[in-house]
Each structure stands twice: as C-alpha cells, then as structure tokens.
C-alpha cells in the first residue's frame, strides 16, 4: 500500500507536539473531507487499510507493506508470487482509484 505521509512527513517528533487541527487539514496532495484528512495526517487511515487488506484478502499481516510515497503518483501495487509487480499509477486524484 502507498501513503503520502501527509502534511507532517518531514516534521520531527518535537515539532509534532505543536501541530494544530488546521495544519492537519492542510493535506499536500488530496482534497478530502475533514475526517479522512485527519486520519491521513495521522496515518490512521493506513492502519485501517492494513486491517481491511488482511481480512478482505485473507493475508498474513507480515505480507502487507506500507510505502511512503509523497508525490502520490503510485496509488497501489501488488507483488505476485513470481516477483512481478503491477502498479496503478496516475495523477494525485482519488476520482479514479
């Protein structure tokens, strides 16, 4: 799975102590509703997506990786048993994926 890293990707742990809700709602790539934007800024959405993938695809959690990809061009990737990888790639816009 891919994750943009949100608006706080480059902040230190110390800097994270002073972030505001307004800053969290300022996602660099996506225009989403407030809840999903906050979940994205905190990476909570990735935790939920990992849980979903585990149960929907009956996968061991160890087989699911999250890759931080700030440009958000790769929306998803699947690695097959033979080592080949298929990716869904496009502009950072969630209307298609």
Structure description:
It is a single chain. Helix content is 30%, strand content 15%. It is globular, with a radius of gyration of 15 Å. It starts with a strand and ends in an 8-residue tail after the last strand. The strands form two sheets. It has a two-stranded parallel ribbon with strand order 1-2. With 97 residues, the chain is α+β, with helices and mostly antiparallel strands. The chain has helices at 13-16, 21-24, 34-41, 44-56; strands spanning 2-3, 67-68, 74-79, 85-89. A hairpin with a 5-residue loop joins strand 3 (74-79) and strand 4.
Task: Provide a concise account of the structure shown.
The chain is of the alpha+beta class and 97 residues long.
Enumerate the strands of the largest sheet in spatial order, edge to edge or round the barrel.
Answer: 1-2
Given the C-alpha coordinates, what overall shape results? Answer: globular
Give Rg in angstroms.
15 Å
What is the overall number of helices?
Answer: 4
Low-confidence stretches: none
The helicity comes to 25-40%
């Amino acid at each position: 799975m891919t994750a943009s890293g949100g608006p706080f990707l480059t902040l230190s742990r110390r800097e994270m102590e002073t972030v505001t809700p307004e800053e969290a709602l300022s996602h660099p790539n996506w225009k989403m509703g407030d809840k999903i934007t906050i979940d994205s800024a905190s990476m909570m959405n990735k935790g939920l997506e990992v849980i979903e993938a585990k149960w929907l695809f009956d996968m061991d959690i160890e087989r699911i990786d999250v890759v931080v990809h700030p440009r958000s061009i790769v929306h998803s990737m699947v690695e097959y048993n033979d080592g080949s990888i298929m990716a869904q790639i496009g502009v950072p816009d969630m209307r298609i994926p």
